[in-house]
């Protein structure tokens, strides 16, 4: 089998051209996005990897590696650890080649994902509390049972398989100026870049990362792959803690630029894809488009031909509720403010009148005291550059105290749903946000795990229909309690200290 040390660029080109991906994968269309092209003043093309049999590009790499196995290795079967698109790619490729596949998935994996893998002929082993534990188990089983471990990104054959997408794009439309590619562990970006730069080096290849899982950006800053302390899970396909060694080597050498986008920008890109080509992308699948839009604006790009890769469409249907809620903000078509107004008759009306004919998208307030009330207000805007500033100025000039919360993640995720509740007497509290895998009873389990040793002073949870539940919780605590911090670390959930968030002081 090919090993990582000795692959030259030419080897990658050859491996990519010879990868037998089309036994299972298909050549996907490169569609025009007419509406967005018009809006952005560039020709925008989308590579439709949602049209693969597993609805993501991951089948390319999996097939390239599995098809390269010797007769003996095929007999022993393959094993992988994944709760996402890689799992489905491995299961389908192995089944098509008559090879047994075992996929280790964390115990918390939703049924829908387990069933998808089983439907593609994979055997599923549910093991471990998280991905790392599932991966350790998969490696162990590889040793015990002689199965070949199929990694998700950091292997030359996986990289070469993903690179088959580059050849297709060039054959479909070679006069391209830039290609935008999503980056998780970097397999797709590395493969695409190493091939494009050998054939038409003038095409710029730009990696797009989710702000809260930017492992390539962190590695570029450090000069080598490093672990991220915290990984956001919204764009699940790219929620990777550490970029691969080989993928980093190639990305560092061949990507022309990297851009970061946030969850709201991703949600807006999901909507653009739906509006233009009626595709329903998963968040990671729309990442590249979100990056393209931002890059075009930041660099004032016009009249270019720009390609982006819609890398996957495996989303939980209910995820769309959250996406639709957030895409207005991602498009910067909604501004959110905290406004303090006098607590007196008619002041609400006066405030609304001041907003004029603008559409108010959200409005929450709660009695505070006899003198003032604080309102959480959302306003639809059409010009993100100037209109928000106009509103801020108008309100301030009329004597209101206003804070712009449009970019405040915690305010958008939690505070907007839990306005009110200032304690009647001073409270010493520490506030944390948590993420935990969603499954029936998960919230109860989360609460049980938190225990009862500390008094909970605030708690907000809202099901977004996604795979991860998000909670904001306050605890009655003195400033710093090392025992409590230890307890939090031992829970095994992603958590973050929010105590100093300004929206907390406003409303709670
Ligand atoms: C839909 C989707 N997009 C992008 C990626 C990122 O790919 P890579 O890990 O090769 O960077 C993945 C990875 O699983 C994915 O599933």
From TrEMBL:
Pathway recorded for this protein: Amino-acid biosynthesis; L-isoleucine biosynthesis; 2-oxobutanoate from L-threonine: step 1/1
Reaction catalyzed: L-threonine = 2-oxobutanoate + NH4(+)
What is a single Pfam family found in this protein's UniProt entry?
Answer: PALP
What InterPro entries does UniProt report for this protein, alphabetically? ACT-like_dom_sf (IPR045865), Ser/Thr_Dehydratase (IPR050147), Ser/Thr_deHydtase_PyrdxlP-BS (IPR000634), TD_ACT-like (IPR001721), TD_ACT-like_sf (IPR038110), Thr_deHydtase_biosynth (IPR005787), TrpB-like_PALP (IPR001926), TrpB-like_PALP_sf (IPR036052)
Query: In the record, what terms sit under GO molecular function?
Result: L-serine ammonia-lyase activity; pyridoxal phosphate binding; threonine deaminase activity
The protein's Enzyme Commission number: 4.3.1.19
What enzyme category does the UniProt record give?
A: lyase
Q: What is this protein's function per UniProt?
A: Catalyzes the anaerobic formation of alpha-ketobutyrate and ammonia from threonine in a two-step reaction. The first step involved a dehydration of threonine and a production of enamine intermediates (aminocrotonate), which tautomerizes to its imine form (iminobutyrate). Both intermediates are unstable and short-lived. The second step is the nonenzymatic hydrolysis of the enamine/imine intermediates to form 2-ketobutyrate and free ammonia. In the low water environment of the cell, the second step is accelerated by RidA.
Which Gene3D superfamilies would you find in this protein's record? 3.40.50.1100, Biosynthetic Threonine Deaminase, Domain 3 (3.40.1020.10)
Signal peptide, first to last residue: none
CDD domains cross-referenced by the UniProt entry: ACT_ThrD-I_1, ACT_ThrD-I_2, Thr-dehyd
The organism named in the record is Candidatus Schmidhempelia bombi str. Bimp
Ranges for domain ACT-like come to 335-407, 430-500
**What are the transmembrane regions?**
none
Q: Does the keyword Lyase apply?
A: yes
Alphabetically sorted, this entry's keywords are:
Amino-acid biosynthesis, Branched-chain amino acid biosynthesis, Isoleucine biosynthesis, Lyase, Pyridoxal phosphate, Repeat
Per the similarity annotation, which family is this? Belongs to the serine/threonine dehydratase family.
Report quaternary structure and partners: Homotetramer.
Q: Which PANTHER family match?
A: THREONINE DEHYDRATASE, MITOCHONDRIAL, THREONINE DEHYDRATASE, MITOCHONDRIAL-RELATED
Q: Name the cofactor(s).
A: pyridoxal 5'-phosphate
Q: What is the name listed in the Swiss-Prot or TrEMBL entry for this protein?
A: L-threonine dehydratase
């Amino acid at each position: 089998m090919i090993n990582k040390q000795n692959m030259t660029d030419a080897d990658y080109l050859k491996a990519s051209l010879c990868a037998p991906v089309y036994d299972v994968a298909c050549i996907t269309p490169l569609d025009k996005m007419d509406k967005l092209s018009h809006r952005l003043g560039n020709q925008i093309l989308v590579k439709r990897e949602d049209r693969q049999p597993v609805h993501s590009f991951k089948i390319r790499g999996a097939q390239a590696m599995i098809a390269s196995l010797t007769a003996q290795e095929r007999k022993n079967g393959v094993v992988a650890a994944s709760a996402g698109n890689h799992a489905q790619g491995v299961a389908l490729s192995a089944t098509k080649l008559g090879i047994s596949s075992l996929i280790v998935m964390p115990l918390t994996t939703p049924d829908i994902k387990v069933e998808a893998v089983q439907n593609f002929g994979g055997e599923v082993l549910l093991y471990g509390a998280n991905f790392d534990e599932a991966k350790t188990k998969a490696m162990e089983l590889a040793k015990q049972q002689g199965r070949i471990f199929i990694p998700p990104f950091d292997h030359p054959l996986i990289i070469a398989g993903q690179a088959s997408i580059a050849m297709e794009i060039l054959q479909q439309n070679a006069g391209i100026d830039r290609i935008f590619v999503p980056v998780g562990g970097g397999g797709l970006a590395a493969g695409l870049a190493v091939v494009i730069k050998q054939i038409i080096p003038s095409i710029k290849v730009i990696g797009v990362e989710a702000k809260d899982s930017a492992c390539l950006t962190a590695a570029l800053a450090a000069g080598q792959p490093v672990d991220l302390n915290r990984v956001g899970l919204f764009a699940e396909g790219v929620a990777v803690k550490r970029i691969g060694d080989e993928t980093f080597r190639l990305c560092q050498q061949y990507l022309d630029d990297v851009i970061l986008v946030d969850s709201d920008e991703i949600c807006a890109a999901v909507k653009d894809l739906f509006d233009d080509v009626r595709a329903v992308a998963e968040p990671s699948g729309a990442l590249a488009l979100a990056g393209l839009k931002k890059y075009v604006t930041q660099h004032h790009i016009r009249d270019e031909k720009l390609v982006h890769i819609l890398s996957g469409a495996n989303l939980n249907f209910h995820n769309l509720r959250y996406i639709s809620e957030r895409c207005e903000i991602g498009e910067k078509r909604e501004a959110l403010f905290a406004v303090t107004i006098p607590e007196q008759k008619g002041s609400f009306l006066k405030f609304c009148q001041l907003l004029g004919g603008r559409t108010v998208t959200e409005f929450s307030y709660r009695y505070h005291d006899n003198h003032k009330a604080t309102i959480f207000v959302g306003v639809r805007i059409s010009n993100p550059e100037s209109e928000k500033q106009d509103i801020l100025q108008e309100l301030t000039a009329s004597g209101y105290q206003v804070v712009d919360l449009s970019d405040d993640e915690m305010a958008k995720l939690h505070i907007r749903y839990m306005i009110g509740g200032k304690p009647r007497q001073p409270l010493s509290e520490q506030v944390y946000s948590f993420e935990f895998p969603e499954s029936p009873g998960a919230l109860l389990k989360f609460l049980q795990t938190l225990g009862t040793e500390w008094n909970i002073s605030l708690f907000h949870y809202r099901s977004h229909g996604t795979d991860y539940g998000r909670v904001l919780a306050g605890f009655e605590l003195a400033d710093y309690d090392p025992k409590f911090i230890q307890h939090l670390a031992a829970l095994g959930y992603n958590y973050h200290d929010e105590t100093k968030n300004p929206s907390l002081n406003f409303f709670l």
